[in-house]
Design goal:
Blueprint: H1 11-20, E1 29-30, E2 33-34, E3 40-47, H2 54-73, E4 77-79, E5 82-92, H3 97-110, E6 115-117, H4 122-135, E7 139-141, E8 161-163, H5 168-181, E9 187-193, H6 197-209, E10 213-220, H7 228-235, E11 241-243, H8 248-260, E12 267-269, H9 276-282, E13 290-294, H10 298-301, H11 305-318, H12 324-343, H13 348-356, E14 361-363, E15 366-370, E16 376-377, E17 381-386, E18 389-395
Parallel strand pairs: 3-5, 3-6, 6-7, 7-8, 9-10, 9-11, 11-12, 12-13
Antiparallel strand pairs: 1-2, 4-5, 13-17, 14-15, 15-16, 17-18
Length: about 400
């Protein structure tokens, strides 16, 4: 996910934040990475727990806590024959670029964590990269999806940046295939969030693959509330479907207003809709004939024993169904565990090496292999909503 928050943090500000964050701790910290003590492995969490995209961050926090508690209950992480418990150090970046940067510096310089999980969104994660790289500590974003997230401007991979979710281009192309092959939609309109790389990236990828006619293409901005003018124009154009790549905050309102004016055709979105707040904003009755691409589908996962166990454990603990973002974050923690155990070391530079070597990792969100650009190769699904509930799910080839 990639969310644009007002205000752009310059490189200079990021550097100042890094220099301001100093401190001391149990383990030493240098350009050679961090080294844990003999008792625990400190895992940092830099997450959007308040602010504009707190819905994603809090769901991911739940998955992280569940994974860490399970690992500790089973004895901890095996570091070359020695079991060590996980200690989570959780900090709120407040959906702010500057805060995400300073949190990254604090986690690595003061807290001396071995690795970081989060942030959830591309922009918050990008703000973290300078301080993470300086400290030689890897991080895994559960849900950053911008194609360039793991890459430097020169095209080289960011050495310490990884993710557990697929890229926007893969997601947008998969949505186009679904709309073409499953929905048989020959005429569509696109209504994209132009204030985020997430929305524009999905829209571009969709257009590149969709085999029908894009009758109209419009945009909106984060924070918009009234979408009736554009929806009225769509209503007059004999569409078979509408593709709306964006976040639940705005797409929920768009769906609500579309249904209220009598637009009943399928509405398709991205994984930004995979949050319970979408149906709350749209209204359960309006959240019908809605589809979205997702890295985690409970119906598809029900065929996997490990995923079934995760869903039960999540329901037992939180008294709710496991959302996509919790599953991604859960996988991110276990990816760090797998990296530590494969390298037989909790040194941060060794964890980075282990993450880069992950192959056929049995994740809750599917079998994962990390490729040369630190992106996961993994399956994708499409879920259908009826009356605000998941009523069907489809695998996309």
């Amino acid at each position: 996910m990639n969310k644009i928050i007002k205000g752009v943090m310059s490189t200079a500000i990021a550097g100042m934040a890094a220099m301001m964050m100093t401190g001391c701790g149990v383990a030493k910290n240098s350009s050679n990475g961090t080294h844990q003590d003999s008792k625990v492995i400190k895992l940092g969490v830099n997450m959007e727990l308040s602010g504009a995209v707190a819905g994603y961050g809090n769901a991911e926090k739940q998955g992280i806590q569940l994974a860490a508690d399970e690992i500790n209950k089973n004895g901890g992480i095996d570091v070359n024959g020695h079991k060590k418990k996980v200690k989570l150090i959780i900090r709120d970046n407040k959906s702010s670029l500057a805060t995400s940067s300073s949190v990254a510096a604090q986690l690595t310089t003061k807290d001396k964590v071995a690795a970081v999980v989060g942030p959830a969104t591309t922009n918050m994660g990008t703000a973290e990269i300078p301080n993470i790289t300086k400290a030689a500590v890897p991080f895994v974003s559960p849900s950053a999806t911008d194609p360039k997230f793991t890459l430097q401007k020169n095209g080289q991979v960011h050495k310490y940046v990884f993710r557990a979710c697929f890229q926007n281009n893969f997601q947008g192309k998969s949505a186009a295939k679904f709309v073409t092959n499953k929905l048989k939609a020959k005429r569509v309109a696109i209504y994209a969030d132009n204030s985020s790389d997430y929305g524009t990236g999905l829209a571009k990828a969709f257009k590149d693959v969709y085999q029908g006619k894009v009758v109209d293409s419009q945009t909106y901005a984060a924070g918009d509330k009234d979408f009736n003018a554009v929806l009225t124009s769509f209503k007059a154009k004999k569409l078979d479907a509408i593709y709306i790549p964006g976040y639940y905050t705005e797409v929920g309102l768009i769906v609500k207003q579309a249904r209220q004016m009598g637009i009943k055709i399928p509405i398709v979105g991205g994984d930004g809709l995979a949050d319970p707040k979408f149906a709350q904003i749209a209204g359960s009755q309006n959240a019908t004939n809605v589809y979205y691409t997702t890295p985690f589908s409970r119906q598809v996962a029900a065929k996997n024993k490990r995923a079934t166990e995760f869903m039960k454990a999540f329901k037992d603990r939180y008294n709710e169904e496991a959302p996509t973002f919790s599953a991604l974050a859960y996988d991110a923690v276990y990816m760090v565990k797998a990296a530590i155990e494969s390298e037989k070391s909790d040194d941060s530079t060794k964890i980075r090496a282990g993450l880069a070597k992950i192959k056929d990792f049995d994740g809750i969100t599917g079998r994962i292999t990390i490729n040369k650009t630190h992106d996961p190769e993994k399956p994708i699904a499409v879920e259908k909503m009826t009356n605000g509930k998941i009523s069907n799910a489809f695998s996309v080839e």
